[in-house]
């Protein structure tokens, strides 16, 4: 027998080389349930706020803090939560996050005072910052075969994009038919099911040891910087961009995050290795996600008020009115994104998907006081859902694909961080733009007020004009996301898998 050189086998760098877990699809269900709980909690309380305010008697100024307390803790601690998952174990972090989130939700549902409710919401955000990156990183290391990964990320992408809209629907139903407290109690049921699944079904693939040292300086700088950024944009939404406190907080955020980036080049065990975000395709995915979410969260704010204040829908009907977006998101993620992501390059899905989403937003920008839901709102929401679902699925896949296993948690945290920051910017920036446009409209058309009825109508027209203006800016954010995906994401291999010559050769 003649000696022949053993052939080289090219492998996906994300593969662990072990057989796939036979329970992985059941695991996906529990992971997605946990992610849904975290995502919808950003909006499920929104519709319930007026009822909670009447029950607990907190002021309009404190009403914003029920939302902001959750966003501050969640956004500020995400990177730390992702690194803890890498160090401590993703499954263990996932379970602890679920239990803590459920306990905080129960505390918030039983709140007897404003402070108790705000504290519970902050604790929710803390455990959410553990749970969210652990869930996505579990998905990343569990599904490594490209076709299965595409299907799994298609479902996960639909949850990420549609969860906020589902939260509005669920919040309306629970508030109208039960009590505002059930918008928090419902998490206990979700978490209980997910914990049982995590203990009995979910398994974390055995991999090499990850980081065992925590970058305390980096964690402090990142958490403080991100929390200041979220707080700055939240404050801008209520106090304005020129407010001294707003400016001071945003400057402090820039300084802290700049110091964090510098420290990551010097730290022996960095919290966020810069290779995670500076790789061109992955960085483009993070940036595209953040910009797209600006438009999406701005829309949620405007459409919630438009449906309930202008069209006079009840909380339940207003929530159900968002269903076309959820359906579109499911179609875009599971029927378009998941089917094509193994066949075409990521930007071939992302760029057109974002353009379709921008088109849907442009339709919604046509709203008027007497607009028809069927002619304007429904098609606009559906197209936005299809477009974002098509774009989110390959973006999340690309952002976590090919990452070193010890960095899977922090890469997953960056996905959530980009969305959280995008949501904070979208809510604050677009709300400020809309408020300014409304005030200008009232000033220009004040001479039309000839009676109380005319005054009420002008107020409605000014409000809708402000919403429309804000949505147009959202169109611009999504178009910018499309441009970023086209310019920065250059990999031409489906699903972002490296070309053969770039894959790691392993002797057969």
From TrEMBL:
Entries under Pfam families matching the protein: MFS_1
Gene3D superfamilies: MFS general substrate transporter like domains (1.20.1250.20), Multidrug resistance protein D (1.20.1720.10)
Compartments, record wording: Cell membrane
GO molecular function list: transmembrane transporter activity
Topology of the protein relative to the lipid bilayer: Multi-pass membrane protein
GO CC, alphabetical: plasma membrane
SUPFAM superfamilies found in the cross-reference section: MFS general substrate transporter
Keywords of the record: Cell membrane, Membrane, Transmembrane, Transmembrane helix, Transport
Family annotation (PROSITE patterns): MFS, SUGAR_TRANSPORT_1
Protein name listed in UniProt: MFS transporter
Annotated source species: Speluncibacter jeojiensis
